[in-house]
């Protein structure tokens, strides 16, 4: 953990990953753990507002939208978000976001998928509302280690009272790989989320 503590990836480095086709974290198939724990996320509820922080072009956004949920995502890469709509053959429209200069909101014409192109740290519940569920795959583990507490505090502020949060982490020796994905031990997950 110590080995990764000071590592920082800039927004430019993330944009570059998308530009150079180095976005190796993207999966063409839906995530098996979302499939496995979907019932926990939904908890018998329907028509939820589900948040995908640091969403990339995750195909699961389309799958959950098709099930009748409303999907909100955020990513700094406009390329990733546009590729999502293109890959899924979904028409969308684009508009500025009042309150966040330079940000864009890309919304499917059908209205049930709304992706913000900006830094997650620009969001607040005043702008995006609160969520009934969160799918965090490649988000907490992608956030710079120095920003974890800020990220988690923001996520908590975006959650409704009864919301559920599914978090995917990875286990490996942090001395052997510099990340991302960063190694976030379970004890830290517990202390971060309280
Ligand atoms: N959740 C996706 C992508 C994971 S990779 C998946 O599972 O495939 C992490 C993503 O976070 C990248 O797409 C990167 O562009 C985005 N990102 C990095 N820092 C960000 C920030 N501060 N705000 C919003 N998005 C960010």
TrEMBL record:
Catalytic activity: S-adenosyl-L-methionine + a thiopurine = S-adenosyl-L-homocysteine + a thiopurine S-methylether
A Pfam family hit: TPMT
The protein's Enzyme Commission number: 2.1.1.67
PROSITE patterns, per the entry: SAM_MT_TPMT
Domain of life of the source: Eukaryota
Signal sequence, start to end: none
Compartments, record wording: Cytoplasm
Any one GO molecular function term: thiopurine S-methyltransferase activity
GO biological process, one term: methylation
Keyword S-adenosyl-L-methionine: yes
GO terms under cellular component: cytoplasm
Keyword line: Cytoplasm, Methyltransferase, S-adenosyl-L-methionine, Transferase
Similarity-based family: Belongs to the class I-like SAM-binding methyltransferase superfamily. TPMT family.
Identification of the protein by name: thiopurine S-methyltransferase
Organism: Anseranas semipalmata (Magpie goose)
High-level lineage: Eukaryota, Metazoa, Chordata, Craniata, Vertebrata
